[in-house]
Task: structure prediction
Amino acid sequence: MLIEESHKDVPTKADGDGNMRIFLFHPKIPNYPHARFPAVVLFSEIYQVTGPVARFARQMAGHGYIVAAPSSYHEFTGPEPLAYDGPGTDEGNQYKIQKKVAAYDEDAALAVTMLLDLPTCNGRVGATGMCLGGHLAFRAAFDTRVAAAVCYFATDIHSHSLGAGKNDDSLQRAGEIRGEIIMIHGKSDPHVPAPGRDLIRTTLHEKNVTFSFYEIAGAQHAFIRDELSKGRYDPYISNVCFSMLLELFGRVLRSDLGKREGGAGGKEGENVC
Result:
């Protein structure tokens, strides 16, 4: 499938008047100018929309999804990616805790609205992201317009430490998630240690969220980043995880499932062999 790339600057208000650049990756089918596709908001890691994030977006667009990748730090800097080096990491981490949580939420809502306003969108939206973006995809799922989310090694959920004041309410609000989510973590990721992963999983059960939870043996933080990953990139496991993303988005965003009925886990299985 062909891809058309562009961007749109969207006005923001949550932290003063500003503009957020959203990079768009749009599938195109020759001779079908009125084709409609499901859409996905892709939230980046702390470095904004880098080469690996753009390649991830193109991969999804190639499977028939309109992808919108917001520049998360528009309050502080331009839409250009930060460098994968010491100063870039420090800058990204500082912006992450300077930005208001309400501003992150506004960004997500604006991106969803922009996608739904496209005449080529089929009216169904999902969210995904990695690192900081995994947390933002989790929060995006509070929006009832978001039917599915895939969160790669989402940071700061367990520690409630996203945004200004480092006191977010993401786990507290998890019960607001009405769609289906996938949480993906590496078991060797020091950013989200085992007790933190346990807290997230337990809370999702307690809040009756429909979710799948994967912990990958040996995988470290940023294991899907195919550039400057400091030896952590695992292409095979990345493909396995991407297949899980395609299964969820294909089932929920491409199909007209009607209204969900029953509990988060679906019908209880029979006790048979």
